[in-house]
Structures are given as C-alpha cells and as structure tokens.
Design goal:
- There is one protein chain.
- The chain contains 7 helices and 7 strands; from the N terminus they run αβββαββααββααα.
- The longest helix is centred in the C-terminal third of the chain and has 22 residues.
- The two termini are 28 Å apart.
- Keywords: Lyase, Metal-binding.
- One of its GO terms (cellular component) is cytosol.
Length: 244
C-alpha cells in the first residue's frame, strides 16, 4: 500500500520539529505527528531518530492503531500509539506532540500542580491534569507502548489540549502545526514563570473567568509566533514554511 505524500504537510512537520528543538522544548527524545489532510484515518510521524536531524524523507504514514501503512525496515517510535489514540479520540486534533521539556518535568512528579498564571498560558486551564500510568496499569517501564495505555492517556486530555505524564513527560495536541507549536512553547514558558514566581512567594493563578475570556490562543498570535520561531531557525531556509 502506497500513501500519497502530502509534501506541504511533511514540510510543516519538519519545521515544527526543528522549531521545538531550537526553542529547547524537544531534546533527543520526543516527536511530532500530523494528521493527513486528505484522510483523517492517517497520520504522519518520523521513523525513530534524532529530532534535530529530521528530514521529510524520514516521515512515514500510520493508521489509527499505530501501525505503519507502508512496508518499512526503519526503527519506529515505541510510543507512536500516543498519537494514534489522540487522533482516534479527538476529530479536532490535527497535531500531536510528545516531549520531555526540562521546564515541565518538575510538574510531572506530582508534588505541585501546573497552573495558569498569564494570558499566554490561559489555554491550559485552571490546572493541567497529571496522568499516572500506575493507576490503570500498575508498574510499567514508564513508556506508552500500546493502544490501551495510549487510549487511557488521551482520555486525560482536557479542553486545554495538554496533559502531564507522571515521571515521564508531556502530551500536547493542537488544531494544526502552528497551533501545537504555540502551545508547546508557551506551556514551557508558563512553567518557567511559575517556578520562578514560587521562589518569591505565593502566586495568584488565573480565575475561571479570566481563563474563559483568554483561554483560546488568538489565530493572529499563533501565526505571529510561527513567523517569529521560523525566522530564528538556523541554516537552510527550505524549512521556513508556515501552514498554507
């Protein structure tokens, strides 16, 4: 089975990955997935490899069970099921990112909740949920390696499109590559702000009313962020392509 390659989408996936690497969200671990615009039952994800070296040629199509749709000898990410479960559960999700950003990892340990403090973090909601694999699956190797675990994780996503994974990392979804990159970066910025503010004393989270009024990222702000972050990318300008 050969799936037509949506080249514009694949370029956007590469760009999104490079932005997240360059902005310190993604390190050696982590991956971006985008739903195919022509077939909602297909998503694109890289073969397992270093995010900073990703090219469009590394991208493969998968179904919503996390199975590759083309024969391949490439090593695959064991946690590809996360994205399959996201796209299966939420028809509005067009992009999915799993990462382990250092700014957010302290809030993945369960000691203190991640709360929204500012306008650019309002989309996260009053408190970001913390998913604990042990609650449903007992002791594991801390990876999400099958659809049962991934489905349980996806169910923990809030309307804010973010969930922390206890002792592991973060899952963020979005309506497209620009939107999910905006959310990933500003979740890290909000965590950095909260961590710093707590050293000064008590903090004042956003109210429910403030969240309701400011909680959806403005399309113009999302686009401005993409333009800013792509302009900061070093090297080949081939990858400075926004969503068309």
């Amino acid at each position: 089975m050969t799936i037509p390659r949506p080249q514009a989408l694949l370029d956007q996936l590469v760009t999104a990955t490079r932005i997240l690497v360059h902005e310190g969200v993604m390190d050696v671990f982590g991956h971006v997935a985008l739903r195919d615009p022509s077939d909602p039952g297909v998503f694109w994800l890289a073969r397992a490899g270093a995010p900073a070296r990703l090219t469009a040629g590394d991208l493969l199509p998968f179904d919503l069970d996390g199975a590759p749709l083309e024969p391949t000898d490439a090593a695959l990410f064991s946690e590809r099921f996360i994205h399959a479960a996201v796209f299966r559960a939420d028809a509005t999700a067009q992009a999915s990112v799993h990462h382990h950003a250092a700014a957010l990892m302290p809030y993945c340990m369960g000691g203190r909740p991640l709360v929204a403090l500012s306008q650019t973090g309002a989309w996260m909601g009053a408190e970001v949920p913390l998913w604990d694999s042990r609650a449903s699956f007992g002791d594991t190797n801390m990876l999400v390696t099958d659809m049962a675990q991934a489905t349980d994780l996806a169910a923990a996503l809030t309307p804010g499109r973010i969930v922390l994974m206890r002792g592991h990392g973060v899952l963020v979804t979005g309506t497209g590559p620009e939107d999910v990159v905006f959310r990933c970066i500003h979740a890290c910025r909000e965590a950095e702000t909260l961590t710093a503010a707590l050293t000064l004393g008590p903090v004042t989270p956003l109210s429910e009313g403030e969240i309701a009024l400011a909680g959806t990222p403005a399309p113009a702000a999302v686009r401005r962020g993409w333009d800013h972050w792509t302009a900061r990318l070093p090297g080949d300008t081939t990858y400075r392509k926004g969503a068309q």
